[in-house]
Amino acid sequence: MNELLERLSAICGPEHVTDVLADRLCYRRDCGPTPGGVPDIVVRPESTTEVVEIVKVANQARKPLFIWGRATTFVDFGIQEGCIVMALDLMKRIVKIDLESQVVTTETGAIWHAVDSELNRLGWEMTVPGGGGMFSCTIGGTVAYNAVPHGITEYGITGGHVVSLQVVLADGTVIRTSSAANTDVPLSFERGANGPDLTGLFIGSCGTLGIITEVTMRIHRIPECERFLFYAFDTVDDCVDAAQAIQQRDAATFLIGLFGGPKPDGVEGEVFLHTIIRDNVGEAERRAQAASICCETFRGRAQDADGTRRYWTEHMYSWLRNTSAKAYYGGRPYFCPEVAGFLPTQALKEAVPMLHEYVASNADFARVGMRVKGFDVYFSPNAAYLWVDTLYLEMSPEAKEVGLQVRAEIAEMLFSRWMSPGGIVSGIAPYIMPRLGTAFALMKTIKAALDPHNILNPGVLMLGQENIND
Ligand SMILES: Cc1cc2nc3c(=O)[nH]c(=O)nc-3n(C[C@H](O)[C@H](O)[C@H](O)COP(=O)(O)OP(=O)(O)OC[C@H]3O[C@@H](n4cnc5c(N)ncnc54)[C@H](O)[C@@H]3O)c2cc1C
């Protein structure tokens, strides 16, 4: 047994440390398309204390440490050959549900929907519903990535709902942020307390600056009722104008536009708008009327909204297109190298036609059997989050090459004009990080200050790529 394995086993117990090849092969990559290297060791701590000791060992050995929630993102930097993977799935306790301060505190590895289910028993829920990965993703990983959640139109981005964090820094220091930073009264209830927003530093930084071990999120009572609307439009411009009118009236909890890919089954039209409203009965009715008027003013035609309802209540994306999961995901294995990001709502009027033209004029699309899964938009309170989802045949190296080239070209096309991504995955990082200029330089300075030996997730967000032994 090598020395590193012995030291990690002493910290976590031998049952939570492995160097067996069959185990390590399962920790090579997240949902992104690039197979990573094989880690030397996988370690699964059960507590913050164990995380601290593991980080210290990795620092002394100058071994990169890759942090693993449930690997449901498409961050896709792959795991560096020979690193340590620290999987946080065993740290999954709900620490406290505090109805007085309206917050829930969990260990980082708690599954998003499992926490919401516990709150639901009490008639409560997290103030943001989580993203499409809610059944498998962890709270800590989702905050570290700052996922774009369902309900973003009313509730905003995931990170906005985080009250405080407990974080282990690269040297093993444990910090608490926000109101919980006060060591005499370490209470989690107010993000804006105690000076600069240190909580924000770790949201969206994808584990490059510290390891989140506990998260406190805001909670609220489950709204009284839900209403669903579905409209079809003949032009992108009309649909965009209707969506913006709905945004300006705060009429929707969640507004989703379908601007490309397969059209919803059995519906006439070119572009489509799903609206989900959650509120008390009176307000839901008022907001539904406002949303309908916005759609009809811009020539939208009301459709049966049962697909909208099924999407929301059954959590199956395919229902946005009136189809079951089988029809949507069946057939040959496809992979989706997505490009996604925020742009001004009105910019969709230029961006969507440009994407359609790009696909129509790219002969490689048809040659290697690529498809458009969707040009779908989650409307935020004041902007549009556009997912450009193209699909390539996973088993064909030629299709993969084209698929990744398409992702690069679309990233260049959108980031140079309007778009800023939310989560930054490896395939798009080279197209966005250099554009961040002095902001990127500041990120590098912070990384160097907090993690001088580049132990934590080196390479992610193009941070800490320098030689680990320097
Ligand atoms: C079916 C499906 C639907 C999805 N839908 C959406 C969606 O609607 N919106 C969206 O934005 N995303 C979506 N995603 C991707 C989404 O980002 C993940 O579902 C989730 O947010 C990541 O959680 P995770 O625990 O798997 O994190 P991981 O993938 O394990 O980690 C994400 C990043 O954070 C780091 N990290 C993990 N845990 C910690 C920690 N404790 N401290 C510091 N760093 C950490 C990791 O190193 C990595 O860089 C979807 C994924 C799937 C599979």
List the helices and strands and how they pair.
Blueprint: H1 3-12, E1 17-18, H2 21-24, E2 41-43, H3 48-61, E3 65-68, E4 84-87, E5 94-98, E6 103-107, H4 112-121, E7 124-126, H5 139-145, H6 152-155, E8 162-168, E9 174-176, H7 198-202, E10 211-221, E11 225-233, H8 236-248, E12 254-258, E13 271-279, H9 281-297, E14 301-302, H10 306-314, H11 325-329, E15 334-335, E16 339-343, H12 348-361, H13 363-367, E17 371-379, E18 384-393, H14 397-415, H15 429-432, H16 437-450
Parallel strand pairs: 2-4, 3-4
Antiparallel strand pairs: 1-2, 5-6, 6-10, 7-10, 8-9, 8-10, 11-13, 11-14, 12-13, 12-17, 15-18, 16-18, 17-18
Helix pairs in contact: 1-3, 8-9
Description:
With 470 residues, this protein is α+β, with helices and mostly antiparallel strands. It folds into 5 domains: 3-87, Uridine Diphospho-n-acetylenolpyruvylglucosamine Reductase, domain 2; 94-221, Uridine Diphospho-n-acetylenolpyruvylglucosamine Reductase, domain 3 (2-Layer Sandwich); 225-328, Alpha-Beta Plaits, CATH 3.30.70; 331-423, Alpha-Beta Plaits; 433-462, no CATH class. Helices cover 33% and strands 21% of the residues. The strands form 3 sheets. Strands 11, 12, 13, 14, 15, 16, 17 and 18 form an 8-stranded antiparallel β-sheet that branches. Strands 5, 6, 7, 8, 9 and 10 form a 6-stranded antiparallel β-sheet that branches. β8 (162-168) and β9 (174-176) form a beta hairpin. α1 runs antiparallel to α3 (48-61) and α8 runs antiparallel to α9. The radius of gyration is 23 Å and the shape is globular.
